[in-house]
Amino acid sequence: MESILDGFAAEFDTFLAMTPRILAGVLLFVLFLIAGRLASRGVRRLAARTERESRTTRLIGRIMSMIFGILGLVMALHVMGLTAIATSLLATGGILAVVLGFAFKEIGENLLAGIMLSFSRSFNVGDLIESDGLRGIVRAVNLRDVHVRTADGCDIFIPSAAIYRNALRNYTRDGLRRVSFELGIDYGDDPASARTVMREAIEGSPGVLTTPPPSVEIMDLSDAYVRMQGHLWVDTFSGSVVSTVRSEAINRVHRALAENGFTFSSNVTTAVDMRPVTVRVDETG
Questions:
Q1: What is the strand order of the sheet 155-159 is part of?
Q2: Partners of 173 in beta bridges
Q3: Does domain 2-103 have CATH number 1.20.140?
Q4: Residue 132 is inside which H or E element, if any?
Q5: pTM to 2 decimals?
Q6: CATH number, domain 121-170
Q7: Regarding predicted confidence, which is higher, 10 or 236?
Q8: What are the pLDDT digits (tens) for 116-145?
Q9: What is the pLDDT of residue 268?
Q10: Which of 14, 61, 91, 155 could form a disulfide with 40 if both were Cys (CB 3.0 to 4.6 A apart)?
Q11: pLDDT tens digits, 18-59
Q12: pLDDT higher at 52 or 171
């Protein structure tokens, strides 16, 4: 009986000797839990800027809390002197992290890219962008993907990693858009005069900016016609619709060239001569 009491006394003395280390470990673990909660709130607030789905933000917050909780537990075990247990936990966690990293590589890559885009974003909702051959207006920016809508009404969800990795074109960063159109005139017409007529018609079209000014170029001499190209600038921030402004400019150019007697030609067999032809008829008898 006395030996049993001596054993309990020895264990109690050992417990008292370890009490400061146990309290320090528990305190350290609690501090890590608090830090994890704060980090979770910070990440969820950051994600709330770009992510509409609250389920995803909650998941990210829980992951952050779990990471800090595991780190706090490992540090607490080290402080308590249970280094072997802490080492085994680290080894198991490392293996698990490698397995999960390979299994969810694309998901993790998109999440990290989405977080990076929230810090340094080169576009906003409503901008017209093009990435990896996909063009559309940005409808929403999420952590995992960017929602764009194409001109034909198709909704495309581009992975955030693809946006972050590939070159990005933003057509509406400053509101200015340059649009172009082409037409052909007959070799019998004067290209210099056609340039002047086209430029004046474009300048008088509503919605076309004077600065930068519109321009007209002679692109090349094809087998059938002289290829002309017109360029004009539109300010989308002023409410102008690019397609409407372009259509009106083309209509005015077409009318101005026709009124000035130019011949439109896209093919030798389909050339239409708009100039009057004088026909002389000799009457005999």
A1: 155-159, 145-149, 134-141, 128-131, 168-170
A2: none
A3: no
A4: none
A5: 0.53
A6: 2.30.30.60
A7: 236
A8: 776 666 788 888 888 888 888 888 887 778
A9: 41
A10: 61
A11: 666 667 767 777 777 777 777 777 766 665 555 444 555 666
A12: 171
The CB-side HSE value for 283 (13 A sphere, CA atoms) comes to: 0
Domain residue limits, the chain: 2-103, 121-170, 176-270
User: Please, which pLDDT band fits residue 217 given cuts at 50, 70 and 90?
Assistant: very high
Two tokens at 123?
Answer: 């576009």
- Topology adopted by domain 176-270: Alpha-Beta Plaits (3.30.70)
